[in-house]
Amino acid sequence: MGDFNNPEVDLDRFRFRLGFAAVFVLLAFGVLAGRFIWLQVIQHDFYRTRAEDNRIALIPIVPNRGVITDRNGIVLAHNYSAFTLEITPSQAGNLDETINGLAEIIDIQAKDRKRFKRLLDEAKNFESIPIRTRLTDVEVAKFAAHRFRFPGVEVKARLFRQYPLGHVASHAIGYIGRITERDLKWIEEAERQANYKGTDHIGKTGLEQHYEFELHGETGYEQVEIDAGGRALRSLKRIPPVSGNNLQLTLDAKLQEITEKAFGDRKGALVAIEPSSGGILALVSTPTYDPNLFVDGISPENWKELNEHPDKPMINRTINGAYPPGSTFKPFMALAALEMGKRTPNQAISDPGYFTFGNHTFRDDKKGGHGSVDMYKSIVHSCDTYYYILANDMGIDNIAKFMASIGLGQRTGVDLGKDDSGESRGVLPSQEWKRQRFKRPEQQKWYAGETISIGIGQGYNAYTPIQLAQATATLANNGVMFRPHLVRHIVDTRSGDKRPIEPKPLRDLEWKQKNLEVIHRAMIGVNKEGTGARAFAGAPYSVGGKTGTAQVFSLKGSQYKESAVKKHLRDHALFIAYAPVEKPVIALAVLVENGGFGAQSAAPIARMVLDYYLLGKLPAGAATEDSAATDDDNEE
Amino acid sequence: MIDVVGTLKRSWQQLIAHIDFPLLVIVMAIMAFGLATVHSATYDANERMYAQAGNMGVAMVIMWFVSRLPPQKLMNFAIPLYVVGVVLLIAVFLFGIKVNGAKRWLSLGFTRIQPSEILKIATPLMIAWYFQRYEATLRFKHYLVAGLLLLIPFVLIAKQPDLGTALLVGAAGFYVIFFAGLPWKVIIGLLAAGAAAAPILWSMLHDYQRKRILTLIDPTTDPLGSGYHIIQSTIAIGSGGPVGKGYLNGTQTHLEFIPERHTDFIFAVYSEEWGLLGNIVLLILYTLLIGRGLMIASAAPTTFSRLLAGAITLGFFTYAFINMGMVSGILPVVGVPLPFMSYGGTALVTLFLGIGMLMSIHTHRMLVKK
After folding, report:
1. DSSP tag of A42
2. Where are the domains of chain A?
């Protein structure tokens, strides 16, 4: 063996090769540097021109947003094409000069400038930003004549959303507005960024938001060659967009309009549902607003007026207002008692006009009491004492169990807004609810005395009008329950297929027919001889109903006011109804804020709605308040 | 009394004992440019930039760990890592997942791995170990065995097909053999044979690979297809000019003409916005990085460590040169990221494994001397 390598020689060779590698690296990087100099210095002008002049751009083509129509085809939301004047900041030079120059030939107001500034901050330098929307033909012609003076300014045809009926049904339809950071997040979570290239509006509330991804459609693309001014030279390839799907609603726009008028200038809510499907026929929250104000970016003055108005027109009372149901709660209590075997229809109590529990006296509205009261009479004349005793006998958790089954105190999942979070849950009182609601142990305990007033729909009870309407519709439909919804079907633009929404019932509560008959008969009695009789005098159809009055009190107060209503304090008026009782086609819940007694202001509205829907009568204007009703029928 | 300041000082020194600061500063400078450019390239969504910053953090922790392992320990990893890597490559060949017509991934149920990445480190490590083993009795046959050790992963990766990675793995292995003293005659002979075999190699290439080479010669033949990348990236670089269009103002970038702009083509974004000036700065930084690496190799005490240091350093050069070459249109388009600039966690981890090894080689040498 013996011939080992010499380490010294090895190391020298290694270092020589390192040096060789270093030279090689420098040479190679030299080649790159040469290439860079060639491209960036010698050929710079050529490539700059190519970058600016002659390039292929993919221009997104925004699809037409789907159209929303009512059940009879009346258009509630559609699009129209209008010209906008737009500036591409990167190509326009001095922006102030450009805008001042444009203002000499076209009317540009301070609010246009303000909006442009705001959009400029949000946008990228390369996007064109509207300085004026809805140009007239004359203005378009004027600009065309002066166009050469304004590089980077052009007239574009854009589609605008329009709500032809204005204020009508605005709480149901909602509106669209410019995409904000929050909307972008939503789009990203839904992984639809690509489809929203070029789109600058998105549904903000109501149906427009809930069905955003149905209404939007698929964005198309055009491959075009563009010049230095960013103007398209020629089209290379075009993939057309696919229009958004149309929505056909269960809503009846005429009924909606008449109902809104019936409220006059009163605040309140009405939800009318087709009991056999859960389809919403009218969804009214007054006051309303004009959604057209939002489409083009609402002006600060308009926004201030809407937002700071004492009547809060932006709140959708049907899903966001939670009110005690008052006496409209009683038919459900009675049904619960029958179903749970806590009462028979004929079991009667003797009503002295009050009920004493512990050292507290719960009073009935009628001084001296109703005398002997059975279930029928308890509903027809709205006897409080009957329900104080019944609530005490049933116990809070039995009540809560039954009321939960008809959807009270839970989100209905109506198809409004982005997800459920836009809808209020209300309060379904129970021992468990109280434990979670309060922090201190002494507050967490449920007192038996608190159960008493729950029986007449007061106390902690608080439900949204849509929950009450759903419960009424379920009662009208003999226990077969549907999720309330506004869209009857989605019309697929590509195939023309109609995709129905919720054709199947949520659940069948399997109530006994004989129990239901007792309740139906009593609710007919309400409108024949009881608290609703004046409002429904002469109605040519059979109608079940129940009046109610919701006291305004603080949920946090452990003591609620005594049940005798002070005259100067206007409570919320409620009414629930359905007709015809044999085969109901409409069920509704009405609430009039500070409307006093249910019979006084809520029942007349219900009468108008039912008359129009069942008889086709066209009443005009607001429903009159029945001021006489207060004195005769204040039995609630 | 406990000497708090003294203790802290000692533990801090302990902590940074194996960090080579010149290397760290250069790499951090390149990464700063990289992060800024990723931000520009993904302007609409900042998540990428934050994710990349996170990748950098993770990669640097790995670097710190590796730098503390003495080279003798690194040698222990050579055979297991290489064997595992090759076995996984065979597994890919047999059971790999096909994505875009190439079998590069192996599914582990919960995640997918790309074993070829391991070989970028494992191959030079293995061959350096081999030469260390036979350093005293090196004969020509040892070069043949080393060549075989190189050829196995190279062929397996090229078959996937992933020519870019295969070339990188092949280059890393070749550098070890070159530094180990492969006779010049053989090198020249190989080059000549390669030139002669070019037509045969050409016939073995896949269609898309051939297209890329043809496109390089004349990109305009296919302006909307595979020439598109090169046309748009050269326009981006050329239009950047001597001083660039300014940060966040690259029109080619922001009008989305540049494909893969936060990964393989990030150099086009950088070059458009920073111009020739920026390119020269970046070239100088890479030169400094390579220079430092070669210094470490030159001072390394053992055959293993000097071969490994040399190969890793030239590996960095290869990545940078191929990437900038392809983006500026003088090399065909292969999937090679720009080191320390391109977005991507796997590549960063591989790169910092290399940096960590260089640091280990350098700092442990100093300890031995003391």
Report:
1. I
2. 57-146+154-249, 253-282+319-632
Answer yes or no: do B200 and B302 share one domain.
no
Identify whether residues B347 and B216 lie together within a single domain.
Answer: yes
Question: Is residue B132 domain-resident?
Answer: yes
Residues B136 and B106 occupy one common structural domain: yes
Q: pLDDT at residue A373 above 80? A: yes
How far apart CA A247 and CA A161 sit, in angstroms, is: 15
Q: Nearest residue on chain A to B331, judged by CA atoms?
A: A32
> Of the residues B178, B204, B230, which one is the last residue of a structural domain?
B204
CB contact (8 A) between residue B330 and residue A35: yes
pLDDT at residue A442 is higher than 90 = no
The proportion of chain B whose per-residue pLDDT surpasses 70, expressed as a percent, equals 91
Q: Which has more confidence, B171 or B215?
A: B171
Tell if the CB–CB gap between A25 and B314 is shorter than 8 Å.
Answer: yes
Superfamily of domain A57-146+154-249: Penicillin-binding protein 2a (Domain 2) (3.90.1310.10)
Helix (H) / strand (E) element for B238: namely helix B227-240
A32, A58, A184, A193: best to mutate for the B interface, most B CBs within 10 A? A32
CA pair distance A34, A41, nearest whole angstrom = 10
Mutual orientation of helices B303-327 and A7-37 as an angle, nearest 10°? 10
Judge whether B98 lies within some domain.
yes
| Tally of domains within chain B | 2
User: Rounded distance, CA B328 to CA B369, Å?
Assistant: 45
| Closest to B39 measured CA to CA, from B26, B57, B52 | B52
Give bridge partners of residue A550 from the DSSP assignment.
A572
Give residue A54's pLDDT. Answer: 53
Q: What is the mean pLDDT of chain B?
A: 87
The pair of structure tokens assigned to B330 is: 């003088």
3-class DSSP state of B139: coil
B179 plus B213 within the same structural domain: no
**Sequence-separated (6 or more) residues with CB below 8 Å from residue B160:** B92, B93, B96, B102, B103, B104, B116, B166
Note the pTM of the prediction, 2 decimals: 0.60
The residues that bridge with A262 in the sheet, in sequence order, are none
- Residues B111, B46 within the same domain: no
Tell whether B57 and B193 lie within a shared domain.
Answer: no
Q: Tokens in use for A462? A: 């608080």
CB–CB of A21 and B181 under 8 A?
Answer: no
pLDDT at residue B219, as a whole number: 66
- In whole angstroms, give the CA distance from residue A402 to residue A371: 29
Write the burial class of residue B139 (CB in 10 Å: 0-12 exposed, 13-18 middle, 19+ buried): exposed
- State the smallest CA–CA distance between residue B282 and chain A in angstroms: 11
Strands A246-249 and A68-69, sheet pairing: parallel
> Quick one: which of A535, A597, A572, A571 has its CA closest to A317?
A572
- Give me Rg for the CA atoms of chain B: 22
Interface ipTM > 0.95: no
Say if residue B89 is in the same domain as residue B178: yes
- Residues pairing with A362 in the sheet: A355
Q: Are A580 and A541 in contact (CB under 8 A)?
A: yes
Percent of chain B with pLDDT over 90: 54
The percent of residues in chain A predicted with pLDDT above 90, rounded, is: 50
Domain containing residue B334: 22-68+205-370
* Nearest Cα residue to A560 out of A572, A573, A550: A550
Catalytic annotation, residues of A: 327
pLDDT tens for each residue of A178-208: 888 888 888 887 878 778 888 888 999 999 9
Chain A hits for B314, Cβ within 8 Å: 21, 25
Query: Confidence class of residue A493 from pLDDT cuts 50, 70 and 90?
Result: confident
Average pLDDT for residues B301-320, to the nearest whole number?
94
Of A41, A43, A50, which is closest to B242 when you measure between CB atoms?
A: A41
Q: Does domain A253-282+319-632 have CATH number 3.30.70.270?
A: no
Residue B190 lies in a domain: yes
